[in-house]
Specification:
The chain has 64 residues and is an alpha+beta fold. The protein contains 2 helices and 2 strands, in the order ββαα. A two-stranded antiparallel sheet has the order 1-2. It starts with 16 loop residues before the first strand and ends with a helix.
């Protein structure tokens, strides 16, 4: 019996990944500790515990 891999969240799809006009770059708005930030910078974000899928229509779904 094979283990199914869980979908991996990508930063571009996360609600905490936002554009910072001051830095002129996209940043993670979650307060990360040193180890978590090192993983983020290294691109090892596959298992980010803070990942939340960004759904721009979330409020519309609640109204229906």
């Amino acid at each position: 019996m094979e283990k199914k891999k869980q979908p991996v969240g990508r930063c571009e799809e996360c609600e905490f990944y936002d554009y910072d006009e001051e830095l002129d770059a996209y940043v993670c708005d979650v307060s990360l500790d040193e180890d978590e930030m090192a993983n983020f910078v290294a691109g090892n974000t596959g298992r980010c515990p803070y990942f939340r899928f960004y759904d721009e229509y979330k409020s519309v779904h609640k109204q229906i």
